[in-house]
Amino acid sequence: MGSKIAIIGTGYVGLTTGACLSHLGHTVVCADVVPGKVESLSRGEVPILEAGLDELVHDGIRDGLLSFVLGAENAVGDAEFVFLCLPTPQGADGAADLSFIKEAAQQIGPYLQPETVVINKSTVPVGSAGEVAKKLERSDVHVVSNPEFLREGTAVDDFLNPDRVVIGADDRGAADRVAALYDKLPGEVLITDPASAETIKYASNAFLATKISFVNAMAAVCEEVGADVQDVVKGMGLDQRIGNRFLVPGPGWGGSCFPKDSHALVRIAENSGYQFGLLRQVIAVNEEQFGRVANKISRFARGSLEGKTIAVWGLTFKAATDDLRDSPSLNIINRLLEVGATVRAYDPAVEDASDVRLAGIEICGDPYEAASGADVLAVLTEWPEFKDLSFEKVGEVIGTKAVVDARNLLDRDAIKGLGFAYDGIGRS
Ligand code: UDX
Predict the structure, then answer these.
(1) Cα 317 to ligand 1 centroid, rounded to whole Å
(2) pLDDT tens digit string along 370-379?
């Protein structure tokens, strides 16, 4: 017999968590505050691009295990577990803004059954379990931290095949009850105190961001010394202590987690008296990387970008998602627009040109159309289908045969063979 679960918030994390828990046989009610979203989700319409999610939502609804309601208080009345999956945006001082979480806690407090376990799934500052407990004003319920480690695009697979499940709780019984929700899944369950669980999430994301900034900095060194970063990473990665995962050089890291969580951890450390210079530098190297890619494009446009047309392939922060939040591609494009370039962009997951984040960019429905007449083509997101496009055809339509491949995605030798100038990251 499954458990009764409420999910507050149907964003990437909440919807994936709800759909996957219903797939594991639990009865899940998901709440959101947007009426239109609740209606369309109730019809099985998933508003985000996430592999396998449509199917799980559809199956959950069909089997009567997954439903959607308006308002958190309408989801929690029967629940044994309540997952808080709400946004924790970056506040003005870099710290995570907890107001959505606190508001929801205050709202649901009066409706909870005794012994309910309220679970912080969102990435929250260390000490947030205590903050939520205060807002609930219920001494007969438990608050537990159970951070998510879901990558967008592969979130369903990450949920169902976790490397680990981390549960931070003061009450061992509550922790064991949360652990039981996942007992059909592989991966080690690690039970800690709440502060350690909250810290594990920040430490993991900061470490992954560090790996990427490290490899991007090494790519800059490779460019100076004439080495090829792809071979360097391969050679490093064969050392099993290092490994080759998450060492792919690119235009810098982005998305909904790394930028906000790395800033938040700097702030958390500083507030408690530790100057996290290493992490500050990791963030600085990332900012530098956006500028380095913009400079590569401008060099191919012979210095000045004023009046030049730049074709961009890829707008999302990485492939396999439609998410534009903190996308390196958009950061780089804005640098080009600021100095007078025209940007024509194509992305397989972006159709709605009315999104405010795309202001000033000409969105094209086809990659060749974007390249047409351009002074430089820049590949900024690693969509695999870009590898299969015809550079003979690009050569026929582009104004100047010049490509900046910020994901080292393309067949460099073939493209050079067609007479293109080519620049990658850490290899030219
Ligand atoms: C991340 C974490 O991986 C996940 O565990 C966490 O819970 C949420 O944040 P996500 O933001 O979906 O997931 O994306 P991820 O795949 O981690 O990539 C983040 C950024 O780093 C992207 O911009 C990506 O392009 C970049 N990246 C990733 C690289 O540049 N090189 C790499 O080797 C890996």
Answers:
(1) 9
(2) 999 999 999 9
